[in-house]
Amino acid sequence: MSRPPPTRSSKRTSSVGTRLVRFGLSWWQAVKWPLLGLATLVTFAFGVVGFREYFDGRNVDKSMLDLVYLSLQLFTLESGSVPEANPPWQLEVARLAAPTVSAVAVLAAVAVAFQDQLREWRLRRERGHVVVCGLGASGARLVAGLLEAGHRVVGIDVDEANRAATSLRRQGAVIVFGDARHRAVLERVRLDRAAYLISTIGADDTNADVVLGASEVVSRRQGPALVCLARVRDPDLCALLRAEELAAPSRPGSRLDFFNTDELGARLLLRAHPPFLSDQRGDDPNVMVVGLNRLGRSVVVELARQWRARPDADGNLVVTVLDPQAVTTLNRLRSHYPHLDHAAKLVVVETEIEPLDSGVLVGTSASVAYVCIDDDSASLQAAFAIHDRLNNPKPLVVAELDHARSLGRLIDGPGHVDRIRSFNVVDQTMAPSLLLGGTYEILARAIHDEYLANERRRGNTPATNPSMVPWEQLPEGLKESSRDQAAHIGTKLAAIGKAIAPLTDLDASDVVFTPDEVEVMAKMEHERFIEDRLRSGWTPGPKDIEAKTTPFLIPWDELSEDVKDKDREAVRGMPTFLSRAGYQIVSSPT
Protein backbone atom coordinates (compact mmCIF):
# COMPACT_ATOMS: atom_id res chain seq x y z
CA MET A 1 0.00 0.00 0.00
CA SER A 2 1.37 3.38 -0.94
CA ARG A 3 1.66 5.75 1.96
CA PRO A 4 -1.35 8.06 2.33
CA PRO A 5 -0.43 11.55 3.40
CA PRO A 6 -0.30 11.71 7.19
CA THR A 7 -3.05 13.07 9.34
CA ARG A 8 -2.42 16.60 10.48
CA SER A 9 -3.57 18.23 13.68
CA SER A 10 -4.92 21.70 12.95
CA LYS A 11 -6.36 22.32 16.37
CA ARG A 12 -5.59 25.72 17.79
CA THR A 13 -6.37 27.09 21.20
CA SER A 14 -8.65 30.10 21.06
CA SER A 15 -7.40 33.16 22.85
CA VAL A 16 -9.60 35.00 25.32
CA GLY A 17 -9.75 37.92 22.91
CA THR A 18 -11.00 35.73 20.06
CA ARG A 19 -13.70 34.26 22.28
CA LEU A 20 -14.81 37.70 23.41
CA VAL A 21 -14.99 38.93 19.81
CA ARG A 22 -17.07 35.92 18.79
CA PHE A 23 -19.36 36.40 21.76
CA GLY A 24 -19.76 40.09 20.91
CA LEU A 25 -20.55 39.37 17.26
CA SER A 26 -23.03 36.66 18.21
CA TRP A 27 -24.72 38.98 20.71
CA TRP A 28 -24.90 41.83 18.16
CA GLN A 29 -26.40 39.56 15.50
CA ALA A 30 -29.10 38.48 17.93
CA VAL A 31 -30.08 41.94 19.26
CA LYS A 32 -29.09 44.47 16.60
CA TRP A 33 -32.54 45.12 15.10
CA PRO A 34 -34.47 45.23 18.41
CA LEU A 35 -31.71 47.42 19.85
CA LEU A 36 -31.76 49.78 16.85
CA GLY A 37 -35.54 49.96 17.05
CA LEU A 38 -35.42 50.85 20.74
CA ALA A 39 -32.68 53.44 20.13
CA THR A 40 -34.76 55.01 17.36
CA LEU A 41 -37.84 55.33 19.58
CA VAL A 42 -35.88 56.79 22.49
CA THR A 43 -34.06 59.26 20.24
CA PHE A 44 -37.32 60.28 18.60
CA ALA A 45 -38.95 60.84 22.02
CA PHE A 46 -35.98 62.96 23.14
CA GLY A 47 -36.34 65.02 19.95
CA VAL A 48 -40.02 65.71 20.54
CA VAL A 49 -39.46 66.67 24.18
CA GLY A 50 -36.40 68.77 23.31
CA PHE A 51 -38.15 70.74 20.57
CA ARG A 52 -41.17 71.35 22.81
CA GLU A 53 -38.89 72.73 25.54
CA TYR A 54 -37.09 74.88 23.00
CA PHE A 55 -40.21 76.47 21.46
CA ASP A 56 -42.09 76.82 24.76
CA GLY A 57 -39.15 78.81 26.14
CA ARG A 58 -39.58 81.26 23.28
CA ASN A 59 -43.38 81.37 23.37
CA VAL A 60 -43.53 79.87 19.90
CA ASP A 61 -46.63 77.79 19.30
CA LYS A 62 -45.84 74.48 17.53
CA SER A 63 -48.32 71.66 16.98
CA MET A 64 -47.47 68.06 17.85
CA LEU A 65 -47.33 67.31 14.14
CA ASP A 66 -44.64 69.98 13.73
CA LEU A 67 -42.62 68.50 16.61
CA VAL A 68 -42.89 65.02 15.13
CA TYR A 69 -41.80 66.28 11.71
CA LEU A 70 -38.78 68.16 13.12
CA SER A 71 -37.76 65.13 15.20
CA LEU A 72 -37.92 62.83 12.19
CA GLN A 73 -35.70 65.24 10.25
CA LEU A 74 -32.99 64.78 12.89
CA PHE A 75 -32.33 61.30 11.46
CA THR A 76 -31.43 62.85 8.11
CA LEU A 77 -29.18 65.58 9.58
CA GLU A 78 -31.84 68.27 9.12
CA SER A 79 -33.78 70.54 11.54
CA GLY A 80 -31.27 70.14 14.32
CA SER A 81 -29.71 73.60 13.93
CA VAL A 82 -30.90 76.13 16.53
CA PRO A 83 -29.48 79.64 17.12
CA GLU A 84 -28.86 79.31 20.88
CA ALA A 85 -25.61 77.86 22.16
CA ASN A 86 -27.29 75.91 24.96
CA PRO A 87 -30.47 74.24 23.69
CA PRO A 88 -32.43 71.85 25.95
CA TRP A 89 -30.34 68.82 26.88
CA GLN A 90 -32.96 66.46 25.46
CA LEU A 91 -32.60 68.11 22.06
CA GLU A 92 -28.80 68.03 22.33
CA VAL A 93 -28.90 64.27 22.96
CA ALA A 94 -31.35 63.71 20.09
CA ARG A 95 -29.20 65.77 17.65
CA LEU A 96 -26.20 63.55 18.36
CA ALA A 97 -27.98 60.20 18.68
CA ALA A 98 -30.27 60.44 15.61
CA PRO A 99 -27.55 60.50 12.90
CA THR A 100 -25.59 57.84 14.81
CA VAL A 101 -28.60 55.50 14.86
CA SER A 102 -29.20 56.20 11.18
CA ALA A 103 -25.60 55.41 10.27
CA VAL A 104 -25.57 52.15 12.23
CA ALA A 105 -28.89 51.09 10.70
CA VAL A 106 -27.62 51.83 7.19
CA LEU A 107 -24.41 49.84 7.79
CA ALA A 108 -26.37 46.91 9.22
CA ALA A 109 -28.72 46.95 6.25
CA VAL A 110 -25.80 47.09 3.84
CA ALA A 111 -24.21 44.13 5.63
CA VAL A 112 -27.41 42.12 5.22
CA ALA A 113 -27.73 43.09 1.57
CA PHE A 114 -24.14 42.12 0.85
CA GLN A 115 -23.83 39.14 3.20
CA ASP A 116 -23.43 36.72 0.29
CA GLN A 117 -20.57 38.83 -1.07
CA LEU A 118 -19.02 39.03 2.41
CA ARG A 119 -19.31 35.26 2.77
CA GLU A 120 -17.62 34.73 -0.58
CA TRP A 121 -14.86 37.13 0.47
CA ARG A 122 -14.33 35.12 3.67
CA LEU A 123 -14.25 31.86 1.71
CA ARG A 124 -11.57 33.20 -0.62
CA ARG A 125 -9.40 33.92 2.42
CA GLU A 126 -9.93 30.57 4.20
CA ARG A 127 -6.98 28.20 4.56
CA GLY A 128 -6.61 25.09 6.70
CA HIS A 129 -10.32 25.15 7.53
CA VAL A 130 -12.71 22.28 8.24
CA VAL A 131 -15.67 21.68 5.93
CA VAL A 132 -18.69 19.98 7.54
CA CYS A 133 -21.41 18.68 5.20
CA GLY A 134 -24.83 18.26 6.80
CA LEU A 135 -25.97 20.44 9.69
CA GLY A 136 -28.42 18.11 11.40
CA ALA A 137 -28.07 17.26 15.10
CA SER A 138 -24.69 15.55 14.67
CA GLY A 139 -23.24 18.01 12.17
CA ALA A 140 -24.35 21.06 14.17
CA ARG A 141 -22.86 19.62 17.35
CA LEU A 142 -19.59 18.95 15.52
CA VAL A 143 -19.40 22.48 14.08
CA ALA A 144 -20.05 24.02 17.51
CA GLY A 145 -17.26 21.89 19.00
CA LEU A 146 -14.86 22.80 16.21
CA LEU A 147 -15.53 26.50 16.71
CA GLU A 148 -15.03 26.11 20.45
CA ALA A 149 -11.70 24.38 19.79
CA GLY A 150 -10.54 27.30 17.65
CA HIS A 151 -10.96 25.86 14.15
CA ARG A 152 -12.22 27.86 11.19
CA VAL A 153 -15.32 26.06 9.92
CA VAL A 154 -17.36 26.10 6.72
CA GLY A 155 -20.71 24.31 6.90
CA ILE A 156 -22.76 23.03 3.95
CA ASP A 157 -26.49 22.27 4.17
CA VAL A 158 -29.32 21.99 1.65
CA ASP A 159 -31.96 23.57 3.91
CA GLU A 160 -31.84 27.37 3.91
CA ALA A 161 -34.44 27.37 6.71
CA ASN A 162 -32.18 25.33 9.01
CA ARG A 163 -32.21 27.14 12.37
CA ALA A 164 -28.96 25.48 13.40
CA ALA A 165 -27.24 27.05 10.39
CA THR A 166 -28.33 30.51 11.49
CA SER A 167 -27.09 29.92 15.02
CA LEU A 168 -23.74 28.52 13.83
CA ARG A 169 -23.24 31.50 11.54
CA ARG A 170 -23.64 33.77 14.55
CA GLN A 171 -21.00 31.73 16.36
CA GLY A 172 -18.48 32.35 13.59
CA ALA A 173 -18.98 29.60 11.02
CA VAL A 174 -19.30 30.34 7.31
CA ILE A 175 -22.46 28.66 6.02
CA VAL A 176 -23.04 27.72 2.38
CA PHE A 177 -26.38 26.35 1.19
CA GLY A 178 -26.39 23.69 -1.51
CA ASP A 179 -25.97 19.98 -2.24
CA ALA A 180 -22.51 18.85 -1.12
CA ARG A 181 -22.54 16.15 -3.81
CA HIS A 182 -22.29 18.82 -6.51
CA ARG A 183 -18.79 19.75 -7.62
CA ALA A 184 -19.62 23.47 -7.86
CA VAL A 185 -20.62 23.56 -4.18
CA LEU A 186 -17.44 21.74 -3.10
CA GLU A 187 -15.26 24.03 -5.20
CA ARG A 188 -16.99 27.05 -3.68
CA VAL A 189 -15.85 26.14 -0.13
CA ARG A 190 -12.20 26.11 -1.23
CA LEU A 191 -11.38 22.44 -0.74
CA ASP A 192 -8.05 23.09 -2.39
CA ARG A 193 -6.95 24.85 0.81
CA ALA A 194 -9.04 23.00 3.44
CA ALA A 195 -7.56 20.60 5.98
CA TYR A 196 -10.58 18.34 6.54
CA LEU A 197 -13.94 17.51 5.02
CA ILE A 198 -16.45 15.66 7.24
CA SER A 199 -19.77 14.41 5.87
CA THR A 200 -22.54 13.70 8.41
CA ILE A 201 -25.52 13.71 6.03
CA GLY A 202 -28.19 11.09 6.77
CA ALA A 203 -27.70 8.32 4.21
CA ASP A 204 -24.49 6.28 3.95
CA ASP A 205 -24.45 6.41 0.15
CA THR A 206 -24.81 10.20 0.23
CA ASN A 207 -21.83 10.55 2.56
CA ALA A 208 -19.83 8.23 0.31
CA ASP A 209 -20.77 10.32 -2.74
CA VAL A 210 -19.62 13.49 -0.94
CA VAL A 211 -16.15 12.22 0.03
CA LEU A 212 -15.59 10.59 -3.36
CA GLY A 213 -16.60 13.82 -5.07
CA ALA A 214 -14.28 15.75 -2.78
CA SER A 215 -11.35 13.46 -3.66
CA GLU A 216 -11.95 14.21 -7.35
CA VAL A 217 -12.06 17.96 -6.73
CA VAL A 218 -8.63 17.93 -5.03
CA SER A 219 -7.02 15.25 -7.21
CA ARG A 220 -4.45 17.78 -8.46
CA ARG A 221 -3.86 19.35 -5.06
CA GLN A 222 -0.25 19.87 -4.04
CA GLY A 223 1.08 19.60 -0.50
CA PRO A 224 -0.69 17.95 2.45
CA ALA A 225 -3.71 15.85 1.51
CA LEU A 226 -7.32 16.73 2.27
CA VAL A 227 -8.57 14.34 4.96
CA CYS A 228 -12.12 13.22 4.04
CA LEU A 229 -14.22 11.60 6.78
CA ALA A 230 -17.62 10.03 6.07
CA ARG A 231 -20.10 8.81 8.66
CA VAL A 232 -21.41 5.30 7.94
CA ARG A 233 -24.37 4.18 10.06
CA ASP A 234 -23.89 0.44 9.47
CA PRO A 235 -20.92 -0.62 11.67
CA ASP A 236 -20.11 -3.70 9.56
CA LEU A 237 -20.07 -1.67 6.34
CA CYS A 238 -17.98 1.00 8.06
CA ALA A 239 -15.36 -1.53 9.17
CA LEU A 240 -15.26 -3.02 5.67
CA LEU A 241 -14.78 0.37 4.01
CA ARG A 242 -12.00 1.32 6.43
CA ALA A 243 -10.20 -1.97 5.87
CA GLU A 244 -10.45 -1.53 2.10
CA GLU A 245 -9.10 2.01 2.34
CA LEU A 246 -6.19 0.90 4.55
CA ALA A 247 -5.17 -1.60 1.89
CA ALA A 248 -5.81 0.64 -1.14
CA PRO A 249 -3.24 2.76 -2.97
CA SER A 250 -3.19 6.37 -1.85
CA ARG A 251 -5.43 8.81 -3.66
CA PRO A 252 -3.74 11.92 -5.11
CA GLY A 253 -4.58 14.97 -3.03
CA SER A 254 -6.83 13.26 -0.48
CA ARG A 255 -7.17 10.48 2.09
CA LEU A 256 -10.52 8.83 2.80
CA ASP A 257 -11.58 7.58 6.21
CA PHE A 258 -14.89 6.38 7.69
CA PHE A 259 -16.44 6.44 11.15
CA ASN A 260 -19.46 4.89 12.85
CA THR A 261 -20.89 6.75 15.83
CA ASP A 262 -22.38 3.64 17.46
CA GLU A 263 -19.15 1.64 17.32
CA LEU A 264 -17.22 4.65 18.57
CA GLY A 265 -19.93 5.41 21.13
CA ALA A 266 -19.72 1.88 22.56
CA ARG A 267 -16.00 2.27 23.19
CA LEU A 268 -16.46 5.68 24.78
CA LEU A 269 -19.36 4.41 26.91
CA LEU A 270 -17.30 1.54 28.31
CA ARG A 271 -14.33 3.84 28.85
CA ALA A 272 -16.45 6.36 30.77
CA HIS A 273 -18.31 3.68 32.76
CA PRO A 274 -16.07 0.56 32.89
CA PRO A 275 -17.93 -2.78 32.96
CA PHE A 276 -15.37 -4.50 35.17
CA LEU A 277 -12.58 -3.48 37.46
CA SER A 278 -9.02 -3.37 36.18
CA ASP A 279 -8.04 -6.01 38.75
CA GLN A 280 -11.18 -8.16 38.34
CA ARG A 281 -10.77 -11.52 40.08
CA GLY A 282 -12.99 -14.20 41.54
CA ASP A 283 -16.66 -14.05 40.58
CA ASP A 284 -17.54 -13.84 36.92
CA PRO A 285 -18.38 -10.23 35.96
CA ASN A 286 -22.07 -9.83 35.21
CA VAL A 287 -23.20 -7.05 32.86
CA MET A 288 -26.67 -6.21 31.54
CA VAL A 289 -27.55 -4.65 28.17
CA VAL A 290 -31.14 -3.44 27.77
CA GLY A 291 -32.00 -2.80 24.14
CA LEU A 292 -30.25 -4.01 21.01
CA ASN A 293 -30.39 -0.89 18.88
CA ARG A 294 -27.23 -0.05 16.94
CA LEU A 295 -25.47 1.17 20.07
CA GLY A 296 -26.63 -1.85 22.10
CA ARG A 297 -25.30 -4.31 19.55
CA SER A 298 -21.96 -2.49 19.47
CA VAL A 299 -21.84 -2.56 23.29
CA VAL A 300 -22.31 -6.36 23.36
CA VAL A 301 -19.48 -6.89 20.85
CA GLU A 302 -17.18 -4.40 22.60
CA LEU A 303 -17.83 -6.02 26.00
CA ALA A 304 -16.78 -9.40 24.63
CA ARG A 305 -13.76 -7.96 22.84
CA GLN A 306 -12.50 -6.09 25.89
CA TRP A 307 -12.93 -9.10 28.18
CA ARG A 308 -11.22 -11.42 25.70
CA ALA A 309 -8.32 -8.96 25.31
CA ARG A 310 -7.53 -9.01 29.04
CA PRO A 311 -4.47 -11.26 29.48
CA ASP A 312 -5.35 -11.91 33.13
CA ALA A 313 -9.12 -12.40 32.74
CA ASP A 314 -10.40 -15.23 34.94
CA GLY A 315 -13.77 -16.91 34.47
CA ASN A 316 -16.49 -15.98 32.01
CA LEU A 317 -18.08 -12.65 31.26
CA VAL A 318 -21.84 -12.97 31.70
CA VAL A 319 -23.91 -10.58 29.58
CA THR A 320 -27.67 -10.51 30.21
CA VAL A 321 -29.48 -9.09 27.18
CA LEU A 322 -33.06 -7.76 27.23
CA ASP A 323 -34.80 -6.99 23.92
CA PRO A 324 -38.04 -7.97 22.12
CA GLN A 325 -35.98 -9.55 19.32
CA ALA A 326 -32.99 -10.63 21.39
CA VAL A 327 -32.66 -14.16 19.94
CA THR A 328 -32.83 -13.09 16.29
CA THR A 329 -30.56 -10.09 16.79
CA LEU A 330 -27.91 -12.03 18.73
CA ASN A 331 -27.90 -14.78 16.10
CA ARG A 332 -27.11 -12.11 13.48
CA LEU A 333 -24.27 -10.87 15.68
CA ARG A 334 -22.95 -14.42 16.02
CA SER A 335 -22.89 -14.78 12.24
CA HIS A 336 -20.59 -11.73 12.07
CA TYR A 337 -18.58 -12.66 15.17
CA PRO A 338 -18.34 -16.48 15.34
CA HIS A 339 -16.22 -16.34 18.52
CA LEU A 340 -18.71 -14.19 20.44
CA ASP A 341 -19.88 -17.06 22.65
CA HIS A 342 -16.28 -18.02 23.42
CA ALA A 343 -15.66 -14.61 24.96
CA ALA A 344 -18.95 -14.14 26.79
CA LYS A 345 -21.85 -16.14 28.19
CA LEU A 346 -24.98 -14.53 26.72
CA VAL A 347 -28.15 -14.80 28.82
CA VAL A 348 -31.16 -13.88 26.67
CA VAL A 349 -34.41 -12.36 27.98
CA GLU A 350 -36.94 -11.61 25.23
CA THR A 351 -39.28 -8.91 26.54
CA GLU A 352 -40.77 -5.58 25.63
CA ILE A 353 -38.56 -2.73 26.80
CA GLU A 354 -40.65 0.32 25.81
CA PRO A 355 -41.75 0.36 28.60
CA LEU A 356 -39.74 -2.20 30.53
CA ASP A 357 -41.74 -4.43 32.91
CA SER A 358 -39.64 -4.58 36.08
CA GLY A 359 -41.08 -8.03 36.77
CA VAL A 360 -38.80 -9.59 34.14
CA LEU A 361 -35.81 -8.50 36.23
CA VAL A 362 -36.66 -10.98 39.00
CA GLY A 363 -33.82 -13.47 39.31
CA THR A 364 -31.36 -11.38 37.27
CA SER A 365 -28.28 -9.58 38.53
CA ALA A 366 -25.65 -7.24 37.18
CA SER A 367 -22.87 -5.01 38.44
CA VAL A 368 -23.36 -2.60 35.52
CA ALA A 369 -26.37 -2.11 33.25
CA TYR A 370 -26.28 -0.23 29.93
CA VAL A 371 -29.67 0.95 28.67
CA CYS A 372 -29.60 1.43 24.90
CA ILE A 373 -33.08 2.52 23.82
CA ASP A 374 -33.70 5.14 21.13
CA ASP A 375 -36.63 6.74 22.96
CA ASP A 376 -35.21 8.86 25.80
CA SER A 377 -38.30 8.53 28.01
CA ALA A 378 -38.32 4.75 27.70
CA SER A 379 -34.57 4.66 28.32
CA LEU A 380 -34.92 6.66 31.52
CA GLN A 381 -37.90 4.60 32.70
CA ALA A 382 -35.93 1.38 32.19
CA ALA A 383 -32.95 2.81 34.07
CA PHE A 384 -35.10 3.60 37.12
CA ALA A 385 -36.76 0.16 36.96
CA ILE A 386 -33.36 -1.57 37.02
CA HIS A 387 -32.10 0.74 39.75
CA ASP A 388 -35.10 0.05 41.95
CA ARG A 389 -35.34 -3.72 41.36
CA LEU A 390 -31.74 -4.98 41.41
CA ASN A 391 -29.83 -5.04 44.70
CA ASN A 392 -26.90 -6.69 46.48
CA PRO A 393 -25.06 -4.76 45.28
CA LYS A 394 -27.08 -2.08 43.53
CA PRO A 395 -25.77 -1.79 39.94
CA LEU A 396 -24.47 1.24 38.14
CA VAL A 397 -27.09 2.02 35.46
CA VAL A 398 -26.11 4.08 32.41
CA ALA A 399 -28.96 5.29 30.18
CA GLU A 400 -28.61 6.49 26.59
CA LEU A 401 -30.20 9.95 26.38
CA ASP A 402 -29.55 11.49 22.98
CA HIS A 403 -32.13 14.28 23.02
CA ALA A 404 -33.18 14.95 26.62
CA ARG A 405 -30.03 16.85 27.57
CA SER A 406 -31.79 18.62 30.45
CA LEU A 407 -32.81 15.29 31.99
CA GLY A 408 -29.24 14.09 31.59
CA ARG A 409 -27.92 17.12 33.46
CA LEU A 410 -30.43 16.55 36.26
CA ILE A 411 -29.39 12.91 36.60
CA ASP A 412 -25.66 13.61 36.53
CA GLY A 413 -25.69 16.92 38.43
CA PRO A 414 -25.81 17.79 42.15
CA GLY A 415 -28.39 15.77 44.02
CA HIS A 416 -28.42 13.10 41.28
CA VAL A 417 -30.01 9.69 41.74
CA ASP A 418 -27.40 7.39 43.22
CA ARG A 419 -25.76 5.10 40.60
CA ILE A 420 -27.80 6.27 37.59
CA ARG A 421 -25.90 8.11 34.86
CA SER A 422 -26.67 9.35 31.35
CA PHE A 423 -24.69 9.00 28.14
CA ASN A 424 -25.22 11.15 25.05
CA VAL A 425 -23.83 9.42 21.97
CA VAL A 426 -24.01 12.50 19.72
CA ASP A 427 -22.20 14.77 22.16
CA GLN A 428 -19.51 12.20 22.94
CA THR A 429 -18.77 10.97 19.43
CA MET A 430 -18.88 14.37 17.72
CA ALA A 431 -15.92 15.67 19.76
CA PRO A 432 -13.48 17.23 17.24
CA SER A 433 -10.34 15.83 18.87
CA LEU A 434 -11.79 12.34 18.49
CA LEU A 435 -13.08 12.57 14.94
CA LEU A 436 -10.29 14.50 13.25
CA GLY A 437 -7.73 11.87 14.20
CA GLY A 438 -9.43 9.12 12.25
CA THR A 439 -8.25 5.53 11.85
CA TYR A 440 -4.61 6.37 11.19
CA GLU A 441 -4.42 8.43 14.36
CA ILE A 442 -5.85 5.56 16.42
CA LEU A 443 -3.33 3.13 14.94
CA ALA A 444 -0.47 5.61 15.36
CA ARG A 445 -1.26 6.03 19.05
CA ALA A 446 -1.41 2.25 19.50
CA ILE A 447 1.96 1.90 17.74
CA HIS A 448 3.50 4.48 20.06
CA ASP A 449 2.03 2.74 23.14
CA GLU A 450 3.57 -0.53 21.97
CA TYR A 451 6.88 1.23 21.40
CA LEU A 452 6.84 2.66 24.95
CA ALA A 453 6.12 -0.78 26.42
CA ASN A 454 8.99 -2.36 24.48
CA GLU A 455 11.42 0.39 25.53
CA ARG A 456 10.45 0.02 29.20
CA ARG A 457 11.13 -3.72 28.99
CA ARG A 458 14.59 -2.83 27.75
CA GLY A 459 15.11 -0.67 30.81
CA ASN A 460 15.12 2.64 28.94
CA THR A 461 13.70 5.88 30.33
CA PRO A 462 12.93 9.33 28.89
CA ALA A 463 16.38 10.36 30.08
CA THR A 464 18.06 7.74 27.89
CA ASN A 465 15.50 7.88 25.06
CA PRO A 466 13.83 11.27 24.43
CA SER A 467 11.11 9.58 22.35
CA MET A 468 9.71 7.89 25.47
CA VAL A 469 7.05 10.51 26.24
CA PRO A 470 3.25 10.39 26.12
CA TRP A 471 1.70 10.88 22.69
CA GLU A 472 0.54 14.39 23.56
CA GLN A 473 4.15 15.44 24.30
CA LEU A 474 5.65 13.80 21.23
CA PRO A 475 7.09 16.21 18.62
CA GLU A 476 4.83 16.52 15.59
CA GLY A 477 7.50 15.04 13.33
CA LEU A 478 7.57 11.79 15.33
CA LYS A 479 3.77 11.68 15.40
CA GLU A 480 3.84 11.90 11.62
CA SER A 481 6.30 9.02 11.53
CA SER A 482 3.94 6.84 13.57
CA ARG A 483 1.07 7.75 11.24
CA ASP A 484 3.28 6.86 8.30
CA GLN A 485 4.07 3.53 9.94
CA ALA A 486 0.34 2.89 10.40
CA ALA A 487 -0.30 3.65 6.73
CA HIS A 488 2.43 1.18 5.72
CA ILE A 489 0.92 -1.82 7.53
CA GLY A 490 -0.99 -3.03 4.45
CA THR A 491 2.16 -2.99 2.32
CA LYS A 492 4.11 -5.13 4.80
CA LEU A 493 1.27 -7.62 5.23
CA ALA A 494 0.85 -7.97 1.46
CA ALA A 495 4.53 -8.98 1.22
CA ILE A 496 3.85 -12.10 3.31
CA GLY A 497 0.51 -12.98 1.74
CA LYS A 498 -1.64 -11.34 4.44
CA ALA A 499 -4.26 -8.59 4.41
CA ILE A 500 -6.33 -6.40 6.72
CA ALA A 501 -10.01 -7.21 7.34
CA PRO A 502 -12.72 -6.01 9.74
CA LEU A 503 -12.45 -7.67 13.14
CA THR A 504 -14.75 -10.71 13.42
CA ASP A 505 -12.45 -13.09 15.32
CA LEU A 506 -12.08 -11.95 18.93
CA ASP A 507 -8.91 -14.08 19.14
CA ALA A 508 -7.29 -12.19 16.26
CA SER A 509 -4.77 -10.51 18.57
CA ASP A 510 -3.23 -13.94 19.24
CA VAL A 511 -1.90 -14.23 15.67
CA VAL A 512 1.83 -15.03 15.65
CA PHE A 513 4.06 -14.44 12.63
CA THR A 514 6.72 -16.94 11.64
CA PRO A 515 10.38 -15.88 12.09
CA ASP A 516 10.76 -15.53 8.31
CA GLU A 517 7.64 -13.32 8.11
CA VAL A 518 8.93 -11.17 10.95
CA GLU A 519 12.28 -10.74 9.23
CA VAL A 520 10.74 -9.72 5.88
CA MET A 521 8.44 -7.12 7.46
CA ALA A 522 11.10 -5.82 9.88
CA LYS A 523 13.42 -5.08 6.96
CA MET A 524 10.57 -3.32 5.13
CA GLU A 525 9.82 -1.30 8.25
CA HIS A 526 13.44 -0.13 8.41
CA GLU A 527 13.36 0.86 4.75
CA ARG A 528 10.13 2.81 5.40
CA PHE A 529 11.83 4.47 8.37
CA ILE A 530 14.75 5.64 6.20
CA GLU A 531 12.42 6.97 3.49
CA ASP A 532 10.30 8.80 6.06
CA ARG A 533 13.29 10.39 7.81
CA LEU A 534 14.96 11.52 4.58
CA ARG A 535 11.69 12.99 3.34
CA SER A 536 11.37 14.89 6.63
CA GLY A 537 14.86 16.38 6.35
CA TRP A 538 16.77 14.12 8.78
CA THR A 539 20.49 13.53 8.29
CA PRO A 540 23.02 10.99 9.62
CA GLY A 541 24.55 11.75 13.01
CA PRO A 542 24.10 11.18 16.75
CA LYS A 543 20.45 10.79 17.76
CA ASP A 544 19.04 14.28 18.29
CA ILE A 545 15.33 14.93 17.77
CA GLU A 546 15.66 18.72 17.68
CA ALA A 547 18.57 18.64 15.23
CA LYS A 548 16.88 15.90 13.17
CA THR A 549 19.91 13.60 13.16
CA THR A 550 19.94 9.82 13.61
CA PRO A 551 22.63 7.15 13.28
CA PHE A 552 20.20 4.63 11.75
CA LEU A 553 20.05 5.94 8.17
CA ILE A 554 22.02 2.92 7.02
CA PRO A 555 21.14 -0.36 5.22
CA TRP A 556 19.48 -3.16 7.18
CA ASP A 557 22.52 -5.43 7.04
CA GLU A 558 24.65 -2.79 8.77
CA LEU A 559 22.34 -2.42 11.78
CA SER A 560 23.17 -4.02 15.11
CA GLU A 561 20.93 -6.87 16.26
CA ASP A 562 19.61 -4.69 19.08
CA VAL A 563 18.35 -2.08 16.62
CA LYS A 564 16.94 -4.78 14.31
CA ASP A 565 15.01 -6.18 17.28
CA LYS A 566 13.15 -2.88 17.62
CA ASP A 567 11.80 -3.27 14.09
CA ARG A 568 10.98 -6.93 14.75
CA GLU A 569 9.04 -6.00 17.87
CA ALA A 570 7.14 -3.36 15.91
CA VAL A 571 5.85 -5.90 13.40
CA ARG A 572 5.14 -8.56 16.04
CA GLY A 573 2.82 -6.07 17.75
CA MET A 574 0.67 -5.49 14.64
CA PRO A 575 -2.04 -8.07 15.49
CA THR A 576 -2.55 -6.49 18.92
CA PHE A 577 -2.96 -2.86 17.93
CA LEU A 578 -4.96 -3.74 14.81
CA SER A 579 -7.37 -5.66 17.03
CA ARG A 580 -7.73 -2.64 19.32
CA ALA A 581 -8.74 -0.54 16.32
CA GLY A 582 -11.29 -3.10 15.03
CA TYR A 583 -9.24 -5.00 12.44
CA GLN A 584 -7.66 -8.41 12.08
CA ILE A 585 -5.03 -10.03 9.91
CA VAL A 586 -6.21 -12.61 7.37
CA SER A 587 -4.67 -14.54 4.49
CA SER A 588 -4.80 -12.72 1.18
CA PRO A 589 -7.38 -14.13 -1.26
CA THR A 590 -5.72 -16.21 -3.94
Describe this entry's structure for a reader.
Helices cover 50% and strands 12% of the residues. It has a six-stranded parallel sheet with strand order 3-2-1-4-5-6, with helices on both faces. It has helices spanning 16-56, 64-73, 89-113, 115-125, 137-148, 163-171, 183-188, 204-217, 235-247, 261-272, 294-309, 326-336, 340-343, 376-389, 405-412, 425-429, 432-435, 438-457, 476-487, 489-495, 515-535, 561-572, 574-580, and strands spanning 130-133, 153-157, 174-177, 196-199, 226-231, 254-259, 286-290, 317-322, 344-349, 368-371, 396-400, 420-423, 498-502, 539-540, 549-550, 583-587. The protein has 590 residues and is α/β, with parallel strands linked by helices. Strand 5 (226-231), helix 9 and strand 6 (254-259) form a beta-alpha-beta unit.
Features:
590 residues; alpha/beta; Rossmann fold; 4 domains; 50% helix; disordered N terminus
Structural category: alpha/beta
Strands side by side in the biggest sheet? 3-2-1-4-5-6
What CATH first level of the largest domain would be assigned? Alpha Beta
- Proportion of strand residues: 5-15%
pLDDT averaged over residues: 83
Q: Please give the domain count.
A: 4
Total number of strands: 16
Largest sheet: 6 strands, parallel
How would you describe the shape? globular
Q: How many individual helices?
A: 23
N-to-C CA distance: 18 Å
**Low-confidence segments, ≥5 residues, pLDDT <50?**
1-15
